[in-house]
Specification:
- The protein is mainly α.
- The protein has one domain.
- Helix content is 82%, strand content 0%.
- The protein has 4 helices and no strands.
- It has helices at residues 7-17, 19-41, 47-68, 70-88.
- The chain is flat, with a radius of gyration of 16 Å.
- The model has no long low-confidence stretch (mean pLDDT 94).
- Bound molecules: magnesium ion.
- Magnesium ion binds at residues 29, 32, 53, 56.
- Magnesium ion is lined by residues 29, 32, 53, 56.
Length: 91
């Protein structure tokens, strides 16, 4: 499913819980992914658990992209990819 199709859900989420709750939620999801990765390194959780936590972070990242403007975030990503390419000396 294309992320564009989630716009209605992102808007509804924003209207129901508000902007500040979204910041709290992504902080929480990032913390959960960090904890899961620490556990994964010690063999205490499965890859499926990591995928699940990763999905939460990606979804919340998309929620914030919706809030801050996808074009703006895409431009920032392009800049970073350009910088990474130059560091790796790839065309
Ligand atoms: Mg989570």
């Amino acid at each position: 499913m294309e992320k564009q199709q989630y716009s209605d859900i992102f808007q509804a989420t924003l209207e129901k819980w508000g902007e500040e709750a979204q910041y709290d939620q992504i902080i929480e999801e990032c913390a959960e992914l960090i904890a899961a990765l620490k556990h994964f390194k010690r063999g205490r959780v499965t890859e499926d658990h990591i995928v699940d936590e990763l999905a939460d972070v990606i979804l919340m990242s998309q929620q914030l992209m919706y809030m801050f403007g996808e074009g703006r975030v895409s431009q920032a990503i392009d800049k970073k990819i350009y910088k990474l390419r130059s560091l790796l000396h790839t065309p």
